[in-house]
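Lab channel / #folding
Pinned by the channel admin:
"Please post every new chain as: sequence first, then the structure tokens as a reply. Keep commentary short and put observations after the output so the thread stays searchable."

First post following the new format, from NK:
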Amino acid sequence: MISHLLEEANFMRQIGSVVEVDQKTAFATESSIGTAAYGAEGAAISESDHSFGQVTFNPVRLGRIMKVSEELLNYTGTFSAAQLEQYIASSFARSFATAELAAFLTGDDSNAPRGIFYNAATGKIAASATAITGDEIIDLFYSVAVQYRSAPTANWVMSPEAAKLIRQLKNTVTTSGALNYLWTPGLGAAPDTLLGKPVYESDNVGAVASGTKSILFGDTSYCQIVDFGGSEF
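Reply from TO:
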């Protein structure tokens, strides 16, 4: 149950890539990619190597202790033993998912995971600290390389405040004087989309303000979530 609820309540486990390991692990990272080139018949082929770096994932612990009184345990009118265990497991899973999501988004790498907002490159700086324009959203979208922005795993992640400002964008005045909202919500179970890509919101993302990163766009499948050893209850 805990693993199921962690994924259900933490959208980063759905849009990122989850890897399970049993010890401290190092992953290779590409710093540059080799290229192919045409050449004349018989001419030498120039070397064009990949360059690799390395990132080491060190395990950090996420835990919780909960006290349950003997009176509650013995008062069967409130919970049966099985119901109480299920309730506590669900409560733990929700609290773990809340802490994980905050860390996966904005963690500072200090006894916690490094969040995707922590050192994400800036693709566009809004002209205003209190407003967002449609052009700025498009600029951010196209600041990402085409192979990543066109990937089916590309997503938007933003604060509720940023989503509200985008939702309030309207088109120019029509002849009737009416204004139409540019971003209209869908009716399906899937998340809303912006420029064709899903949108995820979280209160953990910084509000729209000077010097904050309130909107992220990119291929989130490159976000590696590394689980060490699973959960113990």
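NK: Residues 81-106 form the longest helix (26 residues).
TO: also worth noting, The chain has a mean pLDDT of 86.
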